[in-house]
Design a protein that fits this description.
231 residues; 8-stranded mixed β-sheet; 17 strands; alpha+beta; globular; 5 helices
């Protein structure tokens, strides 16, 4: 195949306890998947069907990296999230079979240009400018499910400069991981390398230059991100 330019490098994330890397194909994100967060965003937390948005694969940022304060925003937010890594693809996956398709789990931080997201939401426009910008998906090492199991409960916590901002339990997810995978696979074929960010608890808030944001999920460790100046 004769390409007009060299293709970009394959985005990857680390694998816990290994030198291997997990190749990233797509990043799906679940919107408003904790009741308290749904309320703080001004919406009714009734159990309506989940909705999804995406981030580009090359938006991934590793644990310990500095993220520059992004352009076109004055309200840059953190969002602690459990990340599901798909290892076996499938379409129309029955809920009782979904966990067979999970390769592992990671700690994530869905960085958000909240002012742009809300402006788009209020106009009925897509969220891309608020959610899908460069370096907006901080994702820690993926822990193989064979080692950590399939976490359905456990603490999910975020601090900024040591001060707790988000503190919840994975059991509070409105839509569970098996439900999310089954519903998503009914719309499109999941494939190895797909990541799913499962939603954030209440307590989202702004980040400033110099802040250090730490996300920790019980059994999956923690990730840390420093916010650098605009570039």
């Amino acid at each position: 195949m004769d390409l007009v330019f060299s293709p970009p490098a394959q985005p990857t994330v680390a694998v816990s306890g290994s030198d291997k890397r997990f190749p990233v194909r797509r990043i799906f994100c679940v919107g408003r998947n904790y009741a308290a967060h749904t309320r703080e965003m001004g919406r009714d937390p009734d159990r309506e069907p989940p909705f999804f948005f995406t981030k580009p694969a090359d938006a991934v940022v590793a644990d310990g990296e500095t993220v520059a304060y992004p352009p076109e925003t004055e309200n840059f937010h953190y969002e602690a999230e459990l990340v599901v890594a798909i290892g076996t693809g499938g379409r129309d996956i029955p809920e009782e079979k979904t966990l067979e398709h999970v390769w592992g789990y990671a700690v994530g931080n869905d960085l958000t240009r909240r002012d742009l997201q809300l402006a788009a939401r209020d106009k009925g426009r897509p969220w891309d400018w608020g959610k899908s910008f460069d370096r907006s998906a901080v994702i820690g090492p993926v822990h193989p499910a064979k080692d950590v199991g399939h976490p359905a409960k456990g603490s999910i916590r975020l601090t900024v400069n040591g001060e707790t901002k988000q503190d919840a339990d994975l059991a509070e997810l409105i839509w569970s991981v098996p439900e999310i995978i089954s519903i998503l696979s009914s719309s499109m074929t999941l494939k190895p390398g797909d990541l799913i960010m499962t939603g954030t608890p209440a307590g989202v808030g702004a980040l400033a230059v110099g802040d250090v944001c730490v996300v920790e999920i019980e059994g999956l460790g923690r990730i840390s991100t420093r916010i650098g100046p605009r570039e």
